[in-house]
Amino acid sequence: MALRHLYNFNSLVVSPGKAMIDWVNTLYTDSIESYTEHLTEDGASVYLIPEFESPDDVSEWLKDNFHFIFLQELAGWTEDESSFPPITWENFNAFCRVSYQSMVHLISDEEE
Fold first, then answer.
1. pLDDT tier at 4, thresholds 50, 70, 90
2. What confidence tens digit (pLDDT) does each residue in 43-84 have?
3. How far does the chain reach from its first CA to its final CA, in angstroms?
4. DSSP SS3 for 21
5. FRET label pair with 56: which of 10, 19, 33, 66, CA 20 to 30 Å apart?
6. Complete edge-to-edge strand list for the sheet that includes strand 45-49
7. Which residues lie below 8 Å from residue 3, measured CB to CB, with a gap of 6+?
8. For residue 103, what are the contacts with CB-CB under 8 A and spacing of at least 6?
9. pLDDT confidence band for 2 (50 / 70 / 90)
10. Which domain range does residue 60 map to?
11. Separation of alpha carbons 73 and 95, rounded Å
12. Domain total in the chain
């Protein structure tokens, strides 16, 4: 495969925090095994986001757009929106661990 195109993206990697794990365990009380951080290590979601000049710009963007991400993360566990916690910035930060990645590469061998 000859590399023809390299596209750069920014991303957010979102994984379950302790509050998310605790909440999930209240949803599935009849489950044999409770969810722990160990069981959800591979449960991270990656969101491609616009490119930013600085981490401060990312923080501002996230504060304006966390609602969508938080709802996506909750809906990944249940479609019962009545069980969702309040969609607030504080809850988002308690339920989700977020890592900003400024170098995400999409490598393609296809011509545009």
1. low
2. 789 999 988 888 899 999 999 999 999 999 999 989 999 999
3. 16
4. helix
5. 19
6. 45-49, 5-16, 96-108
7. 107, 109
8. 8
9. low
10. 5-108
11. 9
12. 1
Q: What is the pTM of this model?
A: 0.81
| Residue 111: predicted pLDDT | 61
Measured between alpha carbons, how far is 59 from 52 in angstroms, rounded to an integer?
Answer: 10
Task: Name every residue whose Cβ is closer than 8 Å to that of residue 104 and which is 6 or more positions away in sequence.
Answer: 8, 9, 10, 11, 46, 48
Residue 31: count other Cβ atoms within 10 Å of its Cβ.
10
For 87-101, the DSSP string reads: --HHHHHHHEEEEEE
Residue type, 82: S
